[in-house]
């Protein structure tokens, strides 16, 4: 059973995904620095290792696909919370 903190982090990653999906949709992409800034603001943690681990988790959960530094594709959220 997931711990409470893991569930909270999962919800925050979903919120970031929904935020970017509302901005760019499926036709456009965003950049890696914008994604990093969103993670820093949402989690209130600017530790680079923490930010990188959250990006890796978002890739593992199939929320984002990083093509290059300037092309980060956002996957469509399963439930639109906006």
Describe this structure in words.
The chain has helices at about 5-25, 30-45, 50-60; strands at about 65-70, 70-75. It is mainly alpha-helical and about 80 residues long. The protein has a two-stranded antiparallel sheet with strand order 1-2. Helix 1 (about 5-25) crosses helix 2 (about 30-45). It is globular. The termini are far apart. About 15% of the residues are buried.
**What would you call the shape?**
globular
Radius of gyration: 12 Å
Q: How many domain regions?
A: 1
Q: Report how far apart the termini are.
A: 27 Å
- The number of E-state strands comes to 2
> Beta-sheet strand percentage?
5-15%
> Which structural class should the secondary elements be placed in?
mainly alpha
Mean pLDDT: 87
Fraction of residues in helix = 55-70%
Enumerate the strands of the largest sheet in spatial order, edge to edge or round the barrel. Answer: 1-2
Low-confidence stretches: none
Order of helices and strands: HHHEE
| Biggest sheet architecture | 2 strands, antiparallel
Number of helices, counting only DSSP H or I runs of 4 residues or more: 3
């Amino acid at each position: 059973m997931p711990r409470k903190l893991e569930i909270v982090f999962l919800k925050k990653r979903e919120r970031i995904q929904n935020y970017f999906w509302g901005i760019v949709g499926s036709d456009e992409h965003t950049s890696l620095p914008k994604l990093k800034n969103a993670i820093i603001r949402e989690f209130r943690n600017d530790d680079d290792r923490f930010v990188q681990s959250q990006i890796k988790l978002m890739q593992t959960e199939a929320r984002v696909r990083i093509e290059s530094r300037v092309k980060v594709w956002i996957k469509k959220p399963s439930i639109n919370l906006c």
